[in-house]
Amino acid sequence: MSALRKVSGPRCPTCARLLPDPHLLEIDPRFRCGACRIDSPVLDFVQPLFLFQGPLREAVHLFKYSGYWKLGRGLIRSRLSDLLPSLEDVDRILPVPLHPSRLRRRGFNQAVVLAREVAEGSGTPMDLECLVRRKGGRPQVGLRPKERRRNIRGCFAVTSSKNVRGRKVLLVDDILTTGATAKECARVLKEAGAEEVRLLTLAGAFVE
What we know:
Elements: H1 24-27, H2 34-39, E1 45-51, H3 54-66, H4 69-87, E2 92-95, H5 100-106, H6 110-122, E3 131-133, H7 145-152, E4 156-158, E5 168-176, H8 180-191, E6 196-204
Parallel strand pairs: 1-6, 2-5, 5-6
Antiparallel strand pairs: 3-4
């Protein structure tokens, strides 16, 4: 674990980009980076745990594509004590869903494995039925940011708004890149009445 780089430093709360001044959030906790001030982000808080590089990249690939569940669970567990204070007011944990056809091919949803570890460690209920993926779309890997947003639009749906209305929910996924998938999930959740949508990912793919 010592070789893995944790995501640290002063970061924009709604996209996790590194901020140029470590004191900006101390001066104003509502401070957001320039991109988020322009975009009016739909995610209320974003927390990747590790930088997606080096041994962590290899570990995520083994977890995601070769079914090494213990790797993913162990990485979450190693940071759980750091996460617990920020999970105290979360009402529901929602893994980002896979389309059924991809789930059949892969055999499991890596986001569910991670979300279950967070739910068990925090005592917060996990909901596997509320947020579903209706459309497959192309894989996001290799697409430009605009293509990612266009590709993912309309792919997700909320099955029952009563499960999220007025509640604070935590989305869980494996890797944060452009955030297009999480933002689309957050959009439909807020349209269904969610009060807050936060994002937790195992890794963040940043240019540092």
